[in-house]
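Box 4.2: Ligand-aware structure prediction
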Amino acid sequence: MNPRDLDQHAADAPIFDPAAFRLAPHEAALIDKARAFGLRVLMPRAARHDRDATFPIETFRDMHGEGLLGICVPKAEGGAGASFRTYCLAAAELGRYCGATALSWNMHVCSTLWTGALADDLDMSAAERAEHAARRSLHYRRIVADGAVYSQPFSEGGAAAAGAAAFGTEAKPVDGGFVVNGKKIFASLSGAADYYGVLCTERAEGDVASRRNTLYLALPANTQGVSVVGDWDPLGMRGTVSRTLLFKDVFVAEDEMLMPRGVYFRAATSWPHMFLTLSPTYMGLAQAAYDFTVAYLRGELPGTPPVKRRMFPTKQIAVAEMRITLEQTKALWFQAVSEARADPTSEQVLRAYAAQFTVMENANALAAKAIRTCGGQAMLKNLSLERIYRDSRCGSLMLPWTAEICLDRLGRESLYAPGETDA
Ligand SMILES: Cc1cc2nc3c(=O)[nH]c(=O)nc-3n(C[C@H](O)[C@H](O)[C@H](O)COP(=O)(O)OP(=O)(O)OC[C@H]3O[C@@H](n4cnc5c(N)ncnc54)[C@H](O)[C@@H]3O)c2cc1C
């Protein structure tokens, strides 16, 4: 085997080979930085945060030093200016080494991606654009200069997180800002983030709640009236520490608006791929399950005796099937993240649902098959596979694009044109 072949079989080779997937050099460099960071920093810390269900705040401080907190902050504002796709590919590399950290990082990065490259694509009046430019600079400065960490609590336990109703968390307009009241469940980074990027409904006395009036506010975590309640002892993604946030008469200054009025609703309707951002973590976990299996069967997994199990035909068939599933998942997902843009065609939206469903379900299917194929010693808690299995099970549950909702929409929107009925 020549050295080049060896490179290609290395357990930690890029998930998406830059040459094969025709990545631009600046894109490949950022993704490589994430891969190196994942291997060096995330991997050794993952088991401890999973076991203790603690948030890896020290990793986020290290991310600041590496420029990873500002990966999607525009270059003109001191960030790395990553596009939607570049971010997704970088996040997959982190997910490979620690699903929980990658998922939490996603919540932080979305506050910059949605207000950055994505917002630049949206229709805004000149006044809205100017307002947005001034306000987002404030958030970007905090992140780039001070290492501020943002989170993204939108789930409330009702229909709002699926996009079917207005958020129950409400912001009442008052002099100089808003007074926010409400509750968010499953708020990753609760107690750790410096700012909670809260989605809520702006509602003055007597107004009817409407999704069109969704506000996206950065709520400083130490503001009076903000509390973190409940415990966090879930099956997987334990290091996200997604506890419940309560807001009781919290005053938020107008400058903390992450988007101008009405713009979040515009983003959600015209840039639907914004909700695909939960999938990169699980793309990484799918790769991790495969990598683990190959290394284990070759007798090369660090921390295990050098026992080879690859000579059994059943193992070879299982790995072949895993490889096929992985390649199918990668191909569909790469296409979907590459074509994300404003006002996508209905075909592109359907493909995005299919990609989300495929990644979320296949990550766990690969992990389950890895356990069956590698055997009992491989699922002991001193190895990463059982964590990959538990973490990967959580992907299908992530609103607004759960596996069920993707199926629902794929079926309905493939059979009915917009507005079409059987009546
Ligand atoms: C590890 C982890 C981290 C998370 N982090 C965050 C976070 O940082 N911020 C955040 O906001 N949320 C976060 N979530 C929350 C997540 O997006 C869901 O809101 C959460 O799992 C609660 O869902 P539920 O089961 O209560 O949803 P329910 O509303 O009870 O729905 C149950 C299921 O019913 C289906 N369903 C729901 N509504 C519809 C509909 N309108 N049409 C068809 N089917 C529907 C869906 O498949 C859904 O999975 C996180 C979740 C997990 C597991």
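In the box above, the bound molecule is flavin-adenine dinucleotide. The first strand starts at residue 150 and ends at 151.
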